[in-house]
Design goal:
GO molecular function: GTP binding; GTPase activity; microtubule binding
Bound molecules: guanosine-5'-diphosphate, magnesium ion
Strand order of the largest sheet: 4-3-5-2-6-1-7-8-9
CATH superfamily of the largest domain: P-loop containing nucleotide triphosphate hydrolases
Helix content: 55-70%
Keywords: GTP-binding, Motor protein, Nucleotide-binding
Protein name: Dynamin-type G domain-containing protein
CATH architecture of the largest domain: 3-Layer(aba) Sandwich
InterPro entries: Dynamin, Dynamin_GTPase, Dynamin_N, Dynamin_stalk, G_DYNAMIN_dom, GED, GED_dom, P-loop_NTPase
Oligomer: single chain
Shape: rod-shaped
Mean pLDDT: 84
Structural class: alpha/beta
Length: about 675
């Protein structure tokens, strides 16, 4: 059973396969170091022709093959990086396992129906030691075995992966065979394609198998080794139908025709006609039959193709397992050289992409101390930013966002508020000139001297006016706090976006705080309104000056109304006013005029007070917010969340944690892959 290729390799006639292909052309034109390393000098005789050359060929290709196999073991395919792979496909019982057995010269499980139920990655390696080394790798473990037990070991492993029944799985099983004289080849054996489920197989077995086969043969990097029994019409093979779906021109398909011994008639014509577009050519073989030794099988094969009247007519460059081995090695070397730069590029690209994505992710925190540090730091940043934009009017952090230029925006709102107060109906003293005053005086009639001006009349007018403008005050504070709320939230979001747990707490604290601050302001405004309604007072001398100035026109006004010369009159401080309707209220005119002038002089004072107080109040509130309340509220919120159990703040959303795990896994894998690559690159440049 210690069959070695070296013994069977016959000198080739120097021709390549009977058909040229893109791969062979690539193979001729590629000039990279790497290519030279794996393929050697094209002018040299094909290495497999002689024992030392075969061995040097193996030596040259092995580092790259090892690297690709390492990448395959790392499952870089999971990261969407396709590796050059020779994929063995064929209909059930077409002889796939037999071909692999012949190449590996070991026994694989064989039997009726479906034997290969999982993708079997076969890594054949030449071994300098004469003692073969065989092991299986699956589910993260390695199982040592030997030639006598490998078939059973594969069956046991298959059961572990795909269950005891006849079901299949796409989780691969790797079989490593290190044996003296083996070609360095890695191939994937796939479950045989069957249309009809056998007893115990799921109804959709065809779809399941087809999906696995497609997954492996679809990538452009895959070479399809299509196993076709000589006995059938190739055009009817399911495996041909499938490979032609993904490789229309057949440029990456190689056909192995098995059972040449069973159906020699017309085989030469079949492979010459090439009805099914096999770009990489045909190799006709005869596998081991029954309990033949591999040595015997190869001798029988060589004998068959040399002596059989029909089969001997087939060109020797396309018959026999050794030729197949040689072809596969060449193809493998070529796709390796072709795909290598792309693999290197892709691994780096994916690695950088994943690292960048991980960096963009929220920071994970592993201890309460770490969390609290981040928390305090973030609160510090938020406070500093707010102090800058709310208090100091510095907006270097948001140079282009006008909405964040807070001091200027608040000043604008403030000017509007002030204008609204000055322009509202309550501040228009010419409207219904003296009529409000006359009404109030009429209702204040009493049995008393007529020229007393009851203070209550003034207060009731004042109350009505203050009430009339109060909505402007409330409206203004609502507007300013809505603006502040937006601002505070966006500043705190900005500083916490990488810390979801901190963000959550801070956001809630800010929302609560802003509600509180707004309520405080509203309470304050209510109080101001109450105060203005309750008392008419000012120490400002402007009031008396103004009143005296206005009162100096009283007599002129009364005279004017009495003379009834015109219905309009110009009064200093008011402009033109309507007086036509005032004649009938002559007895009240003097008091009404006085009342009006007091109110006019006093209202100016009231408005100024409403504007000034508001300004001072806002400044104080903002200062309190930044200096005291924000920190207090966030800490209260933090301690109140989860009953103060800070450990719970460390928990991430499952989706975030899963994403982080996935990225970390990918990064680790890709880093390992990159190490594999840099190792091989060192070898290449050496
Ligand atoms: P698979 O289902 O495609 O893996 O096919 P197997 O390798 O299990 O082969 C199916 C049957 O065909 C087995 O009984 C093999 O012994 C037989 N067989 C495979 N290759 C040859 C061959 O070249 N000649 C002969 N006579 N029988 C073969
Ligand atoms: Mg099989």
């Amino acid at each position: 059973m210690s069959g070695s290729y070296r013994r069977f390799i016959k000198p080739s006639n120097g021709k390549r396969g009977h058909k040229s292909s893109v791969y062979e052309e690539d193979y001729l034109s590629a000039e990279e170091n790497l290519h030279a390393l794996v393929i050697g000098d094209e002018d040299q005789p094909t290495p497999i022709q002689s024992m030392p050359m075969m061995s040097s060929f193996n030596d040259r290709i092995r580092p790259i093959l090892d690297a690709v196999d390492q990448l395959r073991n790392l499952m870089v395919m999971k990261e969407g990086i396709q590796l050059p792979t020779i994929v063995v496909v064929g209909d059930q019982s077409s002889g796939k396992s037999s071909v692999l057995e012949s190449l590996a010269s070991i026994s694989l499980p064989r039997g009726q129906g479906i034997c290969t139920r999982v993708p079997l990655i076969m890594r054949l390696q030449h071994n300098t030691s004469l003692i073969p080394e065989i092991f299986l790798e699956f589910n993260g473990k390695t199982i040592q075995t030997d030639e006598a037990n490998v078939a059973d070991a594969i069956n046991t492993a298959t059961e572990e992966i795909a269950g005891g029944g006849k079901g299949i799985s796409d989780a691969p099983l790797t079989l490593v065979v290190k044996k003296n004289g083996l070609p360095d080849l890695t191939m994937v054996d796939l479950p045989g394609i069957t249309r009809v489920p056998v007893h115990g197989q799921p109804d959709n077995i065809y779809e399941q198998i087809a999906a696995i086969v497609m997954q492996y043969i679809q990538p452009e990097e895959s070479i399809i080794l299509n196993v076709l029994p000589a006995s059938v019409d190739f055009t009817t093979c399911e495996s041909i139908r499938m490979s032609r779906q993904v490789d229309k021109t057949g440029q990456r398909t190689l056909a192995v025709v098995t059972k040449a011994d069973k159906a020699p008639e017309g085989l030469l014509e079949k492979v010459t006609a090439d009805d099914v577009n096999i770009g990489l050519g045909y190799v006709c073989v005869r596998n081991r039959i029954g309990d033949e030794s591999y040595d015997n099988a190869r001798m029988e094969e060589a004998n068959l193709f040399a002596t059989h009247p029909l089969l001997s007519r087939i060109d020797k460059s396309i018959v026999g397992i050794p030729v197949l081995a040689k072809k596969l090695m060449h193809i493998q070397a070529t796709i390796m050289a072709k795909c290598w730069p792309e693999i290197v590029g892709k691994i780096n690209e994916k690695l950088n992409g994943n690292v960048a994505e991980l960096n963009r992710m929220p920071k994970a925190m592993s201890s309460v101390a770490e969390f609290l540090t981040a928390f305090m730091q973030v609160i510090g940043y938020v406070k500093e930013s707010l102090r800058k934009i709310l208090v100091r009017g510095e907006y270097d952090e948001y140079p282009d966002d006008r909405n964040m230029h807070c001091v200027a925006r608040v000043a604008e709102m403030f000017n509007l508020y002030s204008d609204d107060l000055l322009n509202c109906p309550e501040s228009d003293h010419t409207r219904n000139f003296l009529m409000d005053e006359i009404r109030v005086l009429e209702e204040a009639k009493a049995i008393e001297l007529p020229n007393f001006l009851p203070r209550l009349t003034f207060l009731s007018l004042l109350q009505r006016k203050v009430e009339g403008v109060s909505h402007l005050l409330f409206g203004f504070v609502e507007k300013v706090w809505a603006y502040f709320e937006n601002l505070v939230l966006s500043v705190s979001m900005h500083h916490t976006e990488n810390y979801p747990q901190v963000l959550f707490t801070t956001k809630r604290a800010c929302q609560n705080l802003m509600v509180k601050m707004r309520e405080q302001s509203i309470d304050w405004v209510s109080e101001i309104v109450q105060m203005e309604k309750l008392t008419d007072y000012t120490s400002n001398p402007e009031y008396l000056n103004e009143w005296n100035m206005l009162m100096s026109h009283r007599q002129a006004f009364i005279d004017h109304v009495q003379k009834n010369e015109s219905s309009k009159m110009k009064i200093e401080g008011f402009g033109e006013v309507e007086i036509g309707n005032l004649r009938e209220y002559q007895p009240l005119l003097s008091s009404a005029f006085d009342l009006k002038m007091r109110m006019t002089a006093y209202w100016k004072i009231v408005l100024r007070r409403l504007v000034d107080c508001m300004a001072l109040h806002l400044q104080l509130s903002v200062r309190n917010l930044v200096d005291k309340e924000l920190e207090k509220e966030t800490i209260t919120e933090l301690m109140g969340t989860n009953g103060g159990k800070l450990e719970m703040m460390l928990e991430e959303a499952p989706s975030v944690a899963a994403k982080r795990r996935r990225l970390n896994g990918s990064i680790e894998l890709l880093r390992e892959a990159r190490d594999v690559l840099s190792n091989i690159m060192d070898k290449v440049s050496a």
